[in-house]
Specification:
With 208 residues, this protein is of the alpha+beta class. Helix content is 50%, strand content 7%. The protein contains eight helices and four strands. Strands 2-1-3-4 form a four-stranded mixed sheet, covered by helices on one side. It holds the Pfam family GST_C_2. This is Glutathione S-transferase family protein.
């Protein structure tokens, strides 16, 4: 399998961590979604990550959107089941993932508003950026409340919920160091410190 992505994307990192935890082999193909049309050949939306099945070279052999990819990948190996199969537990893990993804979506929009080179300073909207960052802070508060003093986000063991939270927190530290979530939410800081000791997190830091 080939995973098309970038080293900066938190969504690509989520898939890479899941692949590592499942002990699956794949080839990482780095692409710049802003500077290359290659990704469009596999994903008409022009987004990463995109997982390409072995021996395939067209959209029909591709799986895209990180949530779809990780759900598929979790079925490929019995090692370290990350998503419960059914019921309330499954819903809880996927809700944690949706919360973490929502934080990342909002933060990315805020960063694009602030730094996108094809927009002049007079075209940038501080109100739009503030609106997105308000979602980030609300999401962090919800994460902190949901985690409380538990060892893991959902249930009694490591799951996709923890991976998603770790990717969101890691990307915020990478791109928005001024958001002092460690000081505001010390339980999230402790959880991130624990996640950061896993080899899958050690091997996938976001880099420019």
């Amino acid at each position: 399998m080939k995973l098309i992505g970038s080293l900066t994307s938190p969504f690509v990192r989520k898939v890479r961590i899941v692949m590592a935890e499942k002990k699956l082999d794949y080839q990482l193909v780095l692409e710049d979604v802003w500077g290359s049309d290659t990704i469009l050949k596999m994903n008409p939306l022009g987004k990463v990550p995109c997982l390409v099945m072995e021996g395939q070279d067209s959209i029909t052999g591709a799986v895209f959107d990180s949530r779809v990819i990780v759900e598929y990948v979790d079925t490929l190996s019995p090692v370290g089941k990350l998503i419960p199969e059914r019921g309330r537990e499954r819903c809880e893990v996927r809700t944690w993932e949706a919360l973490a993804d929502g934080i990342m979506d909002a933060a990315i929009l805020a960063r694009q508003e602030r730094h996108w080179p094809h927009r002049s300073d007079t075209q940038r909207s501080a109100a739009w950026e503030d609106r997105q960052l308000a979602k980030v802070h609300a999401g962090l508060a919800a994460m902190s409340q949901g985690l409380g003093e538990k060892a893991w986000c959902s249930g009694s063991h490591f799951s996709l919920a923890d991976i998603s939270v770790g990717c969101a927190l890691g990307w915020l530290s990478f791109r928005f160091p001024e958001i002092a979530w460690r000081e505001t939410h010390p339980n999230l800081a402790r959880h991130m410190d624990k996640l950061s000791q896993r080899q899958s997190f050690i091997d996938t830091p976001p880099t420019a």
